[in-house]
Design a protein that fits this description.
By secondary structure, this protein is of the alpha+beta class. 16% of the residues lie in helices and 33% in strands. α2 crosses α10 and α5 packs across α6. The protein starts with 14 loop residues before the first strand and ends with a helix. It holds the Pfam family Peptidase_S9.
């Protein structure tokens, strides 16, 4: 890659500190203040990266093809049902951002809310929404330029009129409408920081500044909270009970408010307790050690997915009136399948499993009886599901690596799923694209699932450009995703591989724990072992192999970069966590301490040093080409994290290969991006990787 300009050189000002007898040297600590000098340097990096990326020989053609492929699919997601209405977030091929739509009982659909109409700089996006039980109103969370600091817009679903707005900052969809459909409880951060957050009760038409605090630290003696805990109030659509879900660590974003939980405490109380929140008789149901990861309720029963004494989880049932977990009834025993979550649909309990990376659904009568599998219409993954609050209905969005998402309905008949036809089929032909899952023997003998996707006529001659990606944190599962734009890569003979690393959730809690804290080294070595396996099977070779990771995916990619730089032609790291020893000093850092560790203890520091790629960069090493990305509004991984690594690599590498810092001015952590932002990023990444591998 020819240098059109040189990137600005970052000032070195080494900060040395000794923690638990270990000395750390940080040459770019000054960047963390994000002052004028940092932003001037970052502006220069952004201009340099843009100049370099725009000059790549494959970029223009890739962007044209990606836009062509992306214009062929309407995306449906974020489903909800209320009364006779079905709500969904929809992005038409020519739309910048998704809009909220409503489909009436007669099948007529219309746009209910377009965030593009919200005034302000940059763009606005819908983060999540919750309709009222009667389907009349929708509470819709909207943030600017993907900032994730949402304001709540209350919309009249009959007219589409905006009724009122609750100012930021709300970040999670723990919003429950009450039965009157005129009031709701919701969670909000106070004073733009993440400590001492609270749940409030809001009445339509009332001043949000006067909303009643219903769950907060120090409010009720029955509920113990630390400053970093998030108190979420859940009011089910039926029955006389409500739940308090106290999160002690990081959580997945919407729509997973009743699943994918971790490190939570669960309480139950009569919903009449909302009248006097300070005296509400909350009763402890489960603590962190009980390992609750999902829940569902009927009128009188609480169903909990728990990994305690069951590494791949089981389902327990307790009466809401007497929720003694020691006397819980085992509804779904532990098995080889991973129990992900449960839903109550009419008089049946639906159980969603993960079976070797494929979604399965079992069902059983609430009154008791044997579990039975429901026939699945697609051999893939359930991306999301939603149930009707009153009727025995469920909607499931399913997809595979090579099949576009389809929307299925379950009518509580205990038989099967029916295609609704609401999600149109993609016109992009993936008939010649092949996906398979291998099992890679890790260095300790553990089989690591590795999904490999490519054109079916690919020659295994070791000369194909390949991208390996992985996440491996938080127990998150790498679900199959259909991206028609990736056909541009497969048409060029490219291989795309997804490593289902330890630290993720491919095999439940045991898989998560195997790559957590001081065991995080396994996440990195699994990634390297998967890369070497691709080479051994002649999918690619070291000179044509690239890696990609986002957010905590910066841990395996960053670790692989500094441990085995010779393996990679290129490395693309998006909004990555790469300076883990400084992570807890970020806005969202404290809630990630249970997952990664803390420098306040020697054990925690040593765990963080395993995953701190920035501190492991050495002078004079020939590092591969590296593309780092950030969004100026990212509240999860602030720009200085990837910026410090970019500066360190630019100063240290001896390879002469580029280290670029790509900056998105109106962007944050990825969600809420416009169509153009997503397509241009993909073109940049693929062109960067292809050029680096062509030159190897």
């Amino acid at each position: 890659m020819s240098d059109l300009t040189e990137p600005p050189i970052a000032r070195v000002d080494v900060v040395r500190e000794t923690l638990h007898g270990i000395t750390l040297e940080d040459p770019y600590r000054w960047m963390e203040t994000e002052g004028e000098e940092f932003h001037h340097w970052l502006d220069g990096q952004a201009r340099h990266a843009r100049e370099q990326l725009d000059a790549l020989p494959h970029r223009s053609g890739l962007l044209t093809r990606i836009r062509e492929l992306g214009s062929a699919l309407t995306r449906y997601f974020g489903l909800a049902m209320a009364a006779e209405r079905v709500f969904a977030l929809v992005r038409e091929p020519d739309a910048r951002v998704p809009v909220l739509t409503v489909t009436e009982a007669d099948g007529a659909s219309r746009v209910l809310f377009d965030p593009g109409t919200v005034p302000g700089d940059g763009h606005h996006a819908i983060d999540w929404y919750v309709p009222s039980p009667d389907g009349r109103y929708v509470a819709c969370a909207v943030s600017a330029s993907g900032s994730e600091n949402s304001s709540i817009h209350v919309i009249d679903a009959d007219s589409g009129v905006l009724l009122e707005t609750i100012p930021p900052t709300t970040r999670f969809a723990f919003l429950s409408w009450l039965e009157d459909s005129r009031s709701f409880v919701y969670h909000r951060y106070v004073e733009q920081h993440l400590l001492n957050s609270r749940s409030f009760l809001h009445q339509l038409g009332a001043d949000p500044a006067q909303d009643t605090v219903v769950l907060a630290r120090g409010l009720n003696p029955h509920v113990e909270l630390t400053p970093r805990d998030r108190p979420f109030l859940v009011v089910p659509p039926h029955g006389e009970w409500m739940l308090a879900i106290i999160s002690h660590s990081a959580l997945s974003p919407w729509p997973w408010t009743s699943e994918q939980l971790s490190d939570c405490t669960v309480y139950v109380a009569p919903r009449a307790g909302l009248a006097d929140p300070a005296a509400c008789p909350w009763r402890l149901v489960a603590g962190v050690a009980d390992g609750v990861t999902a829940f569902a309720t009927s009128h009188d029963t609480l169903y909990l997915v728990s990994h305690r004494d069951a590494p791949r989880s089981r389902v327990l049932a307790v009466p809401l009136a007497a929720p003694d977990l020691s006397c819980a009834r085992v509804v779904v025993p532990a098995s080889e399948r991973v129990v992900e979550t449960v839903r109550v649909v009419g008089d049946r309990l639906l159980v969603r499993d993960l079976d070797g990376g494929v979604s399965r659904v079992r069902h059983a009568p609430l009154s008791g009886g044997e579990l039975a599998d429901l026939p699945m219409s697609l051999e893939g993954a359930i991306l999301e599901w939603t149930t009707h609050p009153e009727r025995p209905e469920a909607l499931l969005l399913m997809a595979s690596w090579t099949d576009a998402p389809r929307l299925y309905r379950y009518d509580g008949d205990g038989q099967s799923f029916q295609d609704t036809g609401l999600a149109p089929r993609s016109s992009v032909d993936f008939g010649d694209v092949y996906a398979r899952t291998l099992h890679v023997p890790a260095r300790d003998g553990t089989p690591i699932p590795l999904t490999v996707i490519h054109h079916k006529d690919l020659k295994l001659d070791g000369d194909n450009p390949a991208v390996l990606t992985g996440y491996g944190s938080g127990g998150l599962i790498d679900l199959p995703e259909f991206h028609p734009e990736m056909l541009a890569w497969y048409e060029l003979g490219g291989v795309y591989a997804v490593a289902h690393l330890r630290g993720g959730g491919a095999y439940g809690r045991e898989w998560h724990e195997a790559g957590r804290d001081e065991r995080k080294e396994a996440t990195i070595t699994d990634f390297i072992d998967c890369a070497e396996h691709l080479i051994a099977l002649s999918y690619t070779r070291a000179g044509r192999l690239a890696a990609e990771g986002a957010s905590s995916g910066g841990i395996p990619t960053g670790g692989a970069l500094v441990h085995r730089p010779e393996l990679w032609a290129a490395m693309a790291m998006h909004v990555p966590t790469v300076n883990a020893t400084r992570n807890e000093f970020t806005e969202s850092g404290p809630i990630n301490v249970p997952e990664f560790g803390s420098i306040t203890t020697e054990e925690g520091l040593r765990a963080l040093l395993i995953i701190d790629a920035y501190l492991r960069v050495h002078d004079g090493v020939p590092y591969p080409a590296v593309l780092l990305t950030t969004g100026l509004r990212d509240a999860r991984v602030p720009p200085w994290q990837p910026a410090k690594l970019a500066a360190r690599l630019q100063a240290a590498t001896s390879s002469g290969r580029p280290v670029l810092m790509r900056v998105e001015e109106h962007g944050w952590h990825g969600a809420g991006s416009t169509r153009d932002q997503e397509q241009e990023l993909l073109a940049d990444v693929l062109a960067f990787i292809l050029h680096a591998s062509d030159g190897s």
